[in-house]
Amino acid sequence: MSKKSYRQAINEALAQEMRRDPTVIVMGEDNSGGMGAPGEDDAWGGVLGVTKGLMPEFGRERVLDTPITESAFIGAAAGAAATGLRPVAELMFVDFMGVCFDQIYNQAGKFRYMFGGNAVTPLVIRTMYGAGFRAASQHSQCLYPIFTHVPGLKVVIPSSPYEAKGLMIQSIRDDDPVIFFEHKVMYDDEEEVPDEPYTIPFGEANLTREGGDVTVVAIGRMVGFANQVADQLDKDGIGCTVIDPRTTSPLDTDSILESVEETGRLVVVDEASPRCNMATDISALVSQEAFGALKAPIRMVTPPHTPVPFAPELEDLYIPGPDKIEAAVREVVGYGA
Amino acid sequence: MTVDLHAITMPKWGLAMDEGMVVDWHVEEGARLGIGDEVVDIETTKITNALESPAGGILCRRLVAKGETVPVGALLGVIAAGAAEAAEIAAGTAEIDAFIARFEAAFAVAAAEAATETASAPEIVEAAGWRLNYQRAGGNAGESAGSSTTAPIVLVHGFGGDLNTWLFNQPDLAETHAVYALDLPGHGRSGKDVGAGDLAALSGALGAFLDALGIGRAHLVGHSLGGAVALELALGRPEAVASLTLIASAGLGPEINGAYIDGFIAAGRRKEMKAVLQMLFADPQAVGRDMVEEVLRYKRLDGVEAALRGIAGAVFPGGRQGTVLAERLSELAQPVQVIRGREDRILPPAQTEGLPANVAVTMIENAGHMPQMEAAAEVNRLIRKIAG
Amino acid sequence: MLQLNRDTLVDAYTRMRTIRDFEDRIHTEFATGSIPGFVHLYAGEEASAVGVCLNLNDADYIASTHRGHGHCIAKGCDVGGMMKEIYGRRGGLCGGKGGSMHIADLAKGMMGANGIVGGGPPLVCGAALSAKTLKTGGVAVAFVGDGGSNQGTTLESYNLAQVWNLPAIFVVEDNGYAETTASAWAVGGSQTKRAEAFGMPGREVDGHDFFAVYDAAREAVERARAGDGPSLLHVKLDRHYGHFEGDAMAYRAEGEVEALRRDRDCLRAFRTRVTETGLLEPEQLDAIEREVAVLIDAAVAGATSAAAPAAEDLLTDVYASY
Predict the structure, then answer these.
(1) Which sequence spans correspond to the domains of chain B?
(2) Which of residues 9-48 of A touch B (CB under 8 A)?
(3) d(CA B131, nearest CA chain A) in Å
(4) pLDDT digits (tens, 9 = 90+) for B114-123
(5) Between A and B, how many residue pairs show a Cβ–Cβ distance under 8 A?
(6) Chain A neighbours among B 163-192 (CB < 8 Å)?
(7) In chain B, residues 30-89 whose CB comes closer than 8 Å to chain A
(8) Total domains in the fold of chain A
(9) Partner of B263 at 20 to 30 A CA spacing, among B195, C163, C219, C276?
(10) What subunits make at least 3 CB pairs under 8 angstroms with A?
């Protein structure tokens, strides 16, 4: 057990699985870096260093740098997965999905079903998401609702270093295509993480706080904000249960519904753009399945329906921060009073 | 005023605890308390539990409000012990205030000193090929285990547990003894290889642990599987064991709740795990979110499931105890005690009947399979009694 | 001229004949309304699929296009299972859940027909990568049409295969039309020069001539297996039917198809060549034709009598576990 960053936790997961299973390979743009260039090898280890050290340990047969040709190499990862390898391919920024989405949702995601169960596609696509980096509109989106929407894909969104390592190992061992979302702002977050390999099951939410007054479902980076708010409100006698679904596909609907049955109040915090995001999905589910338990309308805390702005002040307004979450919780708690 | 005043202080549950929060008082000011009665619910990062009254008498002051967090050792309330009457207490206000003032002053000094100490951290020892995690508390700092005149206490947890089983016991016992708690092979932070996984292997690991730390003779305290392991060691190396305390221990009869063992191994999700853990306690409410999460985090580690299956297959084959050592207890010359909870749903309380005459038996009412947690004060008293 | 042994020639004719009769029969059956959805027929192009696939074994992979029946049969997939799949019935190669456009059999190295134009080449880079990494000695072949040859995915795949030195072969089956649009207009430059531009060899092949295709494919496959990297075949051929069944082919010249069937039929050319050179007897070929006719009849009978998939099959096999 030792303190590890979100970045180190993912790196360790990759290295440990690559040691354990020779069919696990890593590919992506600059995943080592310096390929064909006169300077250092492993110059970057990935744009934010997540794959550093892998090429020196495992060699270029297992850690492949790619040209900037997402449709070819994400498609190659899909084809390789269907034919005996377990690739972990990097889609550097999820915002780039537009140039390779067919390979993900029409090919990899559908092989098993279209081929009548006669395909196994153990593909992992790692990708960076989220705002707060001042990276502006084409490098700051979340987009996980779009992948969650596609039957055949699994979507994993770890909220901390401990979660990231366990969920990455689980993703690699899983036999379905998994899209693994890494929040670019969280790479330096640290936490005690076991040194040994371990897994965390999909479709099993984590309750990071427990309280009887309101259920707060939060995704990815928003889990930390929700915890902050819960701890603050605890002092005012408002008890929040904070639910981190960990995976939006499969989604642990049971945990969410059970909690709402107890508290009667739901706030969903989702950094993804507000139309058709996870907040809408979860709200609709709860309205349908737990209508009788609700004591207040459901509140969704999301960004506005805009691209992500560049100016720091504007980007900070864009992100659903603790203040907005706290206001939403107080609103549902105070409803009807 | 002729009454004795007793302080109720924030307890230390677990070596890492530095503060706790008052969740709810069970009694009002002026209420009469018996020794051991539940006074106040305390919440720490690990657990919520009821603090038992250290004295019988009237609770004359409640000093910390619901929701407040205070450091370990801080004053929570004052009990006027003995045959105090309400009128006497009202008359003794100044004395009570003075008591509080003296306490706070002494506490501030102690806190300042304590701030320079560091809590003892878990360590790893390599012993005869076993990689064992352990934590030590008490005894003189810097003194090696073998040099003390008092034999140390060694705490051995049960199936699926770890050294944190003893969080209500180790800090308390450490006030008078050197106390070691280890993680058995396959558990906690120890190596996950369990060898044959049988009592011989596990007691071998325990013996190697004692040797590696230079502990020539110890008061062994074992819980559940750990009890059988401790007993196996005591029978094989009696010179190493100064006394033996078996808490809700395996090895005393053939029956065991096989469904618990199977359920514990199989449970991978929060709800399943909670239901399984609730079988351990007389009060199912004792199982909180943190406990469930800690067990799940342990179970998710590579190698743990195989380790647990290995041990279960060797020690509890077919849902029954493979080795019964009850009769052999008579071989032991050193003091032996057996502690069992009346509500134990894992091992039948009846296994405490018909034991050899040299064994002291204590049945604790309202406790299940975890008396060291459910009735910590009583268990600590019994351990202290046998360890001298 | 390449010397092929008798067994290979018999195998070649059998496969080509099977494809032809399979497609002609689907043409007839589709017109009755008994086949759901879209079908895109390969009749006329048989020499390409068979000429290439006879150089492959079960450990090699191919990825096909929406016009996939021919590649599927050439790769050795079960004809009865294929027919059931096209009819959407239980017992189909994909359990009735894929249909004509997604027909596949990974155990035979057939990675599927593909409803997305240009979907195959990246997948084939992946299969080639698997073969290279797992050292199976296998190669992977991507069939694309002249339409698919312009897709970004196809061109990116040429680049990736070259840069990663993959055992991949790209076969551009140029039948002159991408749906209704002539390749002469839509394809900028030359297919073979495109390959060369990416650093790999490209070869023009007459797709009406089984022997020419077989020879060119053998060279490409041997090159890939030897670890010398990818190459491209530009196979010029003709389809006898429309883009899909139901296409009246108004964009083709008067009498164009009739002339092709009469003068440029790859099956007739094969028969002529092997009988005139005495490699095979006409009776052997006739016997093959009779067998194939029986096989196709049985396949149709099997498909039309098979049950629809069970209602529960709607929900199965979305994931390996969920």
Answers:
(1) 4-116, 123-387
(2) none
(3) 14
(4) 654 555 789 9
(5) 32
(6) 189, 192
(7) 67
(8) 2
(9) B195
(10) B, C
Contacts of C160 in chain A (CB under 8 A): 66-67, 69, 72-73, 76
Q: What is the pLDDT of residue A267?
A: 98
Domain spanning B123-387: CATH superfamily: Alpha/Beta hydrolase fold, catalytic domain (3.40.50.1820)
- Please write the tens of the pLDDT for every residue from A268-326: 999 999 999 999 999 999 999 999 999 999 999 999 999 999 999 999 999 999 999 99
- Whole-angstrom distance, CA of residue A38 vs CA of residue A210: 55
Does residue A198 lie in a domain region? Answer: no
Out of A151, A170, A193, pick the residue that ends a domain: A193
Does residue A199 lie within any of the structural domains? no
C-alpha triplet A61, A65, A67: angle, nearest 5°: 130
User: pLDDT truncated to tens, each residue of chain C (322 aa)?
Assistant: 467 899 999 999 999 999 999 999 999 999 999 999 999 999 999 999 999 999 999 999 999 999 999 999 999 999 999 999 999 999 999 999 999 999 999 999 999 999 999 999 999 999 999 999 999 999 999 999 999 999 999 999 999 999 999 999 999 999 999 999 999 999 999 999 999 999 999 999 999 999 999 999 999 999 999 999 999 999 999 999 999 999 999 999 999 999 999 999 999 999 999 999 999 999 999 999 999 999 999 999 999 999 999 999 999 999 999 9
Regarding whether A171 and A276 lie in a shared domain, the answer is no
Determine, yes or no, domain membership for A261: yes
What CATH number is associated with residue A327? 3.40.50.920
- Rounded distance, CA B243 to CA B247, Å? 13
**What does CATH list as the number for B4-116?**
2.40.50.100
Instruction: Give DSSP secondary structure letters for A186-230.
Output: GTT-EEEE-SS-B---TT--EEEE--SSEEEEE-THHHHHHHHHH
Q: Name which residue leads in pLDDT, B321 or B17.
A: B321
CATH number of the domain enclosing A31: 3.40.50.970
Cα distance from B300 to chain A (closest Cα, Å)? Answer: 5
User: Which residue of B123, B133, B289 is the best one to mutate when testing the A interface, meaning the one whose CB has the most A CBs within 10 A?
Assistant: B289
> Does residue A213 sit in the same domain as residue A108?
no
Name which of B95, B216, B210 is nearest B148 in CA terms.
B216
* Residue A256 domain-assigned (yes or no): yes
Residues A131 and A153 in one domain: yes
Task: List, in order, residues 6 or more apart from A41 with CB less than 8 Å away.
Answer: A32, A33, A34, A55, A56
Does A196 lie at the interface with B, CB-CB under 8 angstroms?
yes
Domain that holds residue A70: 2-193
Residue with tokens 């790859």, as numbered in its chain? C266
Angle between helices A70-82 and C120-134 (to 10 degrees): 60
Regarding whether A105 and A236 lie in a shared domain, the answer is no
A84 to chain C nearest CA, in Å?
Answer: 6
**Confidence (pLDDT) at B145:** 57
Can you list the alpha helix ranges (DSSP code H) found in chain A? Answer: 6-20, 54-58, 70-82, 101, 111-114, 144-148, 161-173, 221-235, 253-263, 278-289, 312-318, 322-334
* ipTM value for the complex: 0.92
**Structure tokens that stand for A13 in this block:** 């997961």
Looking at the fold, whether A114 and A29 belong to one and the same domain comes out as: yes
Q: In chain C, which residue's Cα lies nearest the Cα of A83?
A: C127
Q: Which one of A193, A227, A247 terminates a domain? A: A193
